[in-house]
Amino acid sequence: MYLIMTTIFDSRAKEWDSNNIHHVRSVAVAERISKLIPLNPSMTALEYGAGTGILSFLMSDKFSKITLLDSSVGMIDVCKEKITSSGISNMDAQVIDLEVDQYDSKIDIVYSQMTFHHIANVYHVVESMYGVLNVNGWLSIVDLYQEDGTFHEHGEKVHHGFDPDNLVQILSDVGFLNIKYETCFEMKKSNGRIYPIFILVAQK
Hints:
This protein has one domain (3-203): 3-Layer(aba) Sandwich (Rossmann fold). By secondary structure, the protein is an alpha/beta fold. The chain has helices at 3-12, 20-36, 54-58, 73-86, 122-132, 164-174, and strands at 44-48, 65-70, 91-95, 107-113, 133-144, 177-188, 194-203. Helices cover 33% and strands 28% of the residues. The two termini are 24 Å apart. Strands 3-2-1-4-5-7-6 form a 7-stranded mixed beta sheet.
């Protein structure tokens, strides 16, 4: 992830869960993942760019184990506190940035919510995700459709969303199959604008 974004997320970690839109969006995403991918409780999962783990906590009963990865130490510290306080035994959290770090365990499903627009080298991270997936494993990417740069109000160095067809091409080039996407949520920001969000799923 861009280094400056990691620093920003460290500073926002403690207050992240107080913004209800993060929870509402995660509920919608959890519902779509469950509809689009044939889940079963024996599967292992990895959330990349997990933040404080809102999405994974919603899905904790769907998998045998969930690993939460994020490049932000602050976010992972909050994840660990929440895992301990909740008593959930099938989740763990680690500080890992797939743009620069290796992750060697094999996983049945990788999902990522509102993270890809913070990733400089999207192709490399998609390759890394392909590498950690078991054969027939699934990938789910949730992110912004292309926007005019107003979603981030402080000039952060990010992608201004994506044309999902471009992501489909990247995933296809890496080797993913059965790729499809749809709109899964609309997010209203304090600037009054509404930003549509897509979910893309693919299989190794």
